[in-house]
């Protein structure tokens, strides 16, 4: 069930409650008139109050039974029921020709369903109701002058035309709103995608250099950031230039993607993993002790070194890693410098190893 169907199902009970309210007002109005009418009090009580109210109640009760379940053409049944309800009032208050104008109510109700066929159906029904009532009731026909009849018919037709025009313009407006909304959603999606692309390295799916520094800036902006156990890890693929020169850039790209995948696999969800540039990667870890950080890096390094690659004629790939913990008063530049020096030491001391703050492991 869509949103419109849900609102439509809620409309039927509301209309029935309105009909019950009109019935109560009818009883109150005719009850007051009972004390001032020039007609026989007993006849007025039965024929102007009791019998009409019984008919109106029967119509409302029947409509309530109909709308307990979803039925085809329920909107037509609603319009017919409301029209019959109004015709009972018109016949009961035959001396008040103005009551005829209540036939506009079903026309107004038809606008809710935005159906041209339903509007035409409601108009034809109203016109036939006028014809039938005037044909069967000489008293009502005598009380309604020719000018009043012409005015009534013109008003019904004019109301139907206005409602149909409102329907067409509402449809045009809704289509325009849907179009504008869709365009805004498409633009928002494109902007989100562009923003993501500007922060993600397309080759590895990791965060890029820009995203890493933005995240690092946010972490360092936290008061007493050094108490958060912040660790910067720099990782570099060993002998990567030789891989490119010997086996080609396609093989080099495969190696980068493999190392990136291992980085993601061995890090926790809160670790910020990025491709820092070329064959170099950076990880910012927050909330873990140095022992845990190094254990994860060592496990990853060993797993990488034990894997051979068909594109490299069965040779393995190794990585060198430098780790530095953020200390109190340490600047961004110093943090990077010391992590980079640890990485440099890992390279100088034989590669395929992890160095923490200048201490070889």
Question: How would you sum up this structure in a few lines?
Answer:
By secondary structure, this protein is of the alpha+beta class. Helices cover 66% and strands 10% of the residues.
Compile the SSE list and pairings.
Blueprint: H1 3-34, H2 41-66, H3 74-92, H4 104-110, H5 116-136, H6 138-143, H7 146-199, H8 209-220, E1 230-237, H9 240-247, H10 249-266, E2 272-277, E3 280-286, H11 290-306, E4 308-309, E5 315-316, E6 319-325, H12 332-348, E7 354-356, E8 359-360
Parallel strand pairs: 6-7
Antiparallel strand pairs: 1-3, 1-6, 2-3, 4-5, 7-8
Which key features would you list for this structure?
single chain; 361 residues; alpha+beta; Alpha-Beta Plaits; 2 domains; 6-stranded mixed sheet; two-stranded antiparallel ribbon; rod-shaped; Nucleotide_cyclase; GGDEF domain-containing protein
Question: Would you mind describing this structure in some detail?
Answer:
The protein has 361 residues and is an alpha+beta fold. The longest helix has 54 residues, at 146-199. Helix 12 links the parallel strand 6 (319-325) and strand 7. It starts with a helix and ends with a strand. It has a 6-stranded mixed β-sheet with strand order 2-3-1-6-7-8, sandwiched between helices. A two-stranded antiparallel sheet has the order 4-5. It folds into 2 domains: 3-178, no CATH class; 209-360, Reverse transcriptase/Diguanylate cyclase domain (Alpha-Beta Plaits). The protein is built from 12 helices and 8 strands. The chain is rod-shaped. 66% of the residues lie in helices and 10% in strands. Pfam families: GGDEF (PF00990). Keywords: Membrane, Transmembrane, Transmembrane helix.
């Amino acid at each position: 069930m869509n949103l419109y169907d849900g609102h439509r199902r809620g409309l039927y009970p509301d209309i029935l409650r309105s009909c019950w309210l009109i019935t109560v007002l009818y009883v109150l109005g005719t009850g007051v008139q009972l004390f001032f009418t020039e007609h026989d009090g007993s006849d007025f009580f039965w024929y102007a109050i009791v019998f009409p109210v019984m008919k109106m109640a029967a119509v409302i009760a029947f409509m309530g039974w109909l709308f307990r379940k979803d039925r085809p053409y329920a909107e037509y049944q609603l319009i017919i029921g409301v029209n019959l309800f109004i015709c009972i009032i018109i016949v009961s208050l035959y001396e008040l020709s103005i009551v005829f104008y209540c036939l506009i109510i079903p026309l107004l109700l038809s606008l809710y369903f935005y159906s041209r066929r339903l509007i035409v159906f409601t108009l034809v029904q109203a016109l036939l109701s006028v014809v039938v009532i005037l044909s069967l009731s000489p008293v009502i026909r005598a009380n309604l002058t020719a000018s009043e009849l012409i005015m009534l018919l013109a008003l019904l037709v004019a109301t139907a035309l206005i409602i149909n025009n409102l329907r067409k313009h509402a449809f045009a407006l809704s289509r325009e709103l849907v179009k504008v909304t869709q365009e805004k959603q498409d633009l928002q999606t494109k902007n989100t995608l562009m923003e993501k692309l500007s922060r993600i390295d397309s080759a590895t799916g990791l965060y890029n250099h820009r995203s890493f520094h933005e995240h690092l800036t946010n972490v360092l902006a936290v008061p007493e950031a050094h108490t958060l156990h912040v660790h910067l890890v720099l990782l570099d693929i060993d002998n990567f230039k030789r891989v490119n020169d010997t086996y080609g850039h396609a093989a080099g790209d495969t190696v980068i993607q493999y190392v990136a995948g291992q980085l993601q696999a061995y890090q926790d969800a809160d670790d910020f993993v990025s491709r820092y540039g070329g064959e170099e990667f950076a990880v910012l870890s927050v909330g873990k002790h140095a022992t845990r950080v190094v254990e994860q890096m060592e496990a990853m390094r060993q797993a990488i070194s034990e894997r051979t690659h068909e594109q490299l004629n069965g040779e393995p790939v190794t990585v060198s890693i430098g780790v530095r913990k953020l200390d109190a008063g340490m600047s961004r530049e110093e943090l990077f410098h010391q992590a980079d020096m640890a990485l440099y030491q890992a390279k100088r001391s034989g590669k395929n190893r992890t160095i923490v703050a200048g201490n070889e492991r």
